[in-house]
Amino acid sequence: MYGTSYSGFNSIQVAMERPPALKAIIPIYATDDRYADDVHYFGGAMRGLDVLDYPCYMAAMNALPPVPSIYGDDWRRVWEQRVKETEPWLVTWLEHQRFDDYWQFGSLRPTYGAIECAVMIVAGWADGYRNNTLRTFEAMTCPKRLIVGPWAHSSPETSVPGPNHDLIPEHLRWWDHWLKGIDNGVDREPPIVLYAQRSTLPAPDRREVRGEWRWEPTWPPTRLVATDLALARAATTGEDERFDQLEIRGDVGWTAWISCAAGMPWGQSDDQRPDEVHSLTYTWQPLEHELEILGYAKVRLTVSSSTPIAYLSAKICDVFPDGTSSLVTRGLLNLTHRDDRTAPTPLEPGQPYEVEFDLEAASWTFEAGHRIRLDLAGADWPNAWPSPCAGTLTVDRASAVLTLPVVEGPTPVIERPVLPPARPSPVVPVLDRADRDDKENPGWTRWEITHDQLTRETRAYAGSFNDHVASDGVPSFSELYGGHMAVRTNSPGTARAEAEARFVMRFPEATCESHVVMTLASTETEYQLRFDLTTSESGKARWHRSWERTFPRDHQ
To answer: Which residue segment(s) compose the domain that 135 sits in?
Structure first.
């Protein structure tokens, strides 16, 4: 079995059941933890931009009919049954705001020994499932291999960023050995093939990250050294001699955008300086020699909050000599989850707490003359939904430490892996926003940030439309999805997301449409959700359903 994202999850979950006929899998951009490393929750906080995307368009997709020419004359009855029985997945996600049995079901973590067949993981440093890479590889005891490139949540051949490669030959080598018994040496090569990234200027549509391919024989490498950087030794924007105060502002994070880059408008982060104005920053001296990190950085500090529920965002940045701040990795902790994600507990205002949390897996070489910077903030919006209350976080700089996974020395494998280049493809990533009023244009993409000075509201707009021509027996179809998120800078609990998704399938038998409009709003104490689903056939309305629910914020 193999597949990307959802199909990668399927491969992992079936392998956990150990069917005798399953000999090998290749999960691509998949996860071992459905709660913490997926589209649902991030550090114990609900995801933000993902709400505009995945749960909305899946609600519309799940209400489409079966293919009439394949299913037969009864396809309309089955279509009606689908519409009447479907439920928006977001309803269930909001019913489970902390880690519980619902999330454990389908999660490989921590029972990695459940998989016994051969596993080749394919991952990307710009993908949202990057944490599955090194963590799962280390824990599994089955035959295993890992290929991790610079890629986003899209094909390694067309991903932005690249460099791009054709991995199909690597897939075939894996299948040939484990399914056919061919002795092609794939089981004797160093098991980790990784793209070691290095200082690259940021851009939302960055085409390529600088770096080089290499092999690693083990994880963790024996030359990996946990290196502490004391915040007290860094230049800071904090004004006190020891205690740094940070106002919780709901819209900090917009320059970092989404932690799972994919096709546009789900692009990469930009220069972090606009967000750093509203963050605590800690910047160390320029490096005399380049410094490479690989794996999971960690933040350890003592923090107090003026509110019982608060989040702490941490970002490591590469500061170029000209001042450009390029995001390297990020992490977030809902401070009520500081001890246990199954049983969060509120903070006592003013009480200091020692907290420690990992940032996302990363590969990066900071070049000589560059500076390492840590940004702390009370939000990572719109990547994560904001915390409920305005307030102040206080960080004790004297005891705070950033721990970096530093690689000392070269890889013991001198030979370099050589991956095939990407095949010529007619697929061109959509990078430019087209005129959405141009009816002749087959597609458009929107990615905008606006700031309303009077209402103190920041909005993030994201969406796309594509009209696909019929090909290879697949009828023509169009797809639209996206919307906007909004948050009050002075009242982070006052936030909302408005999204829509529409699929139009032009079958020879009929043109079928599924359209969903979703609104999710929050106050300090609750989430308010509404879904409206409408379907039509050849312009005639068929079935309509609505859902409206209110959920208490569970330490969110």
So the answer is: 1-30+108-220
Residues 450, 528 share a domain: yes
What are the angstrom distances between the C-alpha of 387 and each of 45, 246, 307, 345, 517?
8, 14, 10, 15, 25
209 and 324 fall within a common domain? no
Note the pLDDT tens digit of each residue in 39-86: 999 999 999 999 889 999 999 999 999 999 999 999 999 999 999 999
> Same domain, yes or no, for 254 and 307?
yes
For residue 228, is it within any domain? yes
121 bridge partner residues: 146
Are 128 and 34 spatial neighbours (Cβ–Cβ below 8 Å)? no
In a domain, 314, yes or no: yes
Those residues whose C-beta lies under 8 Å from the C-beta of residue 113, and which sit 6 or more positions away, are: 140, 141
If phi > 0 it is left, if psi is from -120 to 50 it is alpha, else beta; for residue 351 that is beta
Residues 83 and 193 both lie in one domain: no
Q: Report pLDDT for 431.
A: 47
- pTM: predicted TM-score of the whole model, two decimal places: 0.95
Kindly report, residue by residue over 401-438, the tens digit of the pLDDT: 999 999 999 989 999 999 999 998 765 554 444 455 55
H or E segment at 169?
helix 168-180
* Same domain flag for 73 and 179: no
CA distance 25 to 15: 8
- Domain membership of residue 416 (yes or no) is no
Helix then strand count (H, E) for the chain reads 9, 28
Question: 243 in a domain, yes or no?
Answer: yes
Q: Tell me: cis bond preceding 163? Omega within 30 of 0 counts.
A: yes
DSSP string, 101-142: HHHHTT--TT-GGG--SEEEEEEETTSTTTHHHHHHHHH--S
Kind and range of the H or E element at 356?
A: strand 353-358
